[in-house]
Design a protein that fits this description.
Layout: E1 2-5, E2 10-18, E3 23-49, E4 54-80, E5 89-106, H1 114-132, H2 135-154, H3 159-167
Length: about 190
Amino acid sequence: RLRLDGLDDFVINRFKLNIILSKVTFDITFSNIRASASHYDTKTIVDGLRQLGLSVQYEGDGTLDFGLKNLRVAGTLKYKIPMLWGSMRITSLKVTITVESCNSEINGFFGEGKLNRLLNDKLASLIESGINDNQQLISETIENTLVPRVNKKLKGKDFWTILDAILSSDDGTSEDDPIVTKCVAPEDPWA
C-alpha cells in the first residue's frame, strides 16, 4: 500500500486576496511530503528502444520511502466572478514550484548494494533538478491542464452557487433546507 504524508503540514507564507483586481497571490511551503510503502514487488519490462529490439527487464522487492523537503508552491491566480449571471472561471494561473531537497530510499530495486544507492542518489538529484530547473514548463503545464478542468467544473455555476457550496455543511445540505432537530428530552432526574 502506498502512503502519502505531509500534505497537512504546511506554512502559508503569503495569501493575499485582491477583490478589485480579481487576483489571489499565494505562497505555501510543505515542510516534508513523504511517499512510503512498507513493501513493493515489481517485475517490469521497459522497451526503451523498441525499434531496435532493445528492452530491459528489472525486478524489485523491498520498501519505498521517498520525500520532498520544503516544497514551495507560490503563484498568482486570476479569476472572473460574474455577480448576476454567467459562470465563474479562472482566467490564469501562474505557479512557481521549488524544492530544497529530495530523499529517495527505494530498497531492493537493484539489490541492496552500491547500485541501489547510486539509483537512489540519481533519482533524488533528477527530481530536484527536474523541479527547480524547469519552472516555466511546470507553470505552463499546470495552467494548460488544471485550469481547463477546473473551468469545466465551474461552468454553469454562478457566485451564489459556489458560495452556497462552500458554506453548506458536510452532509450536502444548504441554507435553504429546513432545520431538522432530533431533540430528545432528558429523563426527569427527580422522578
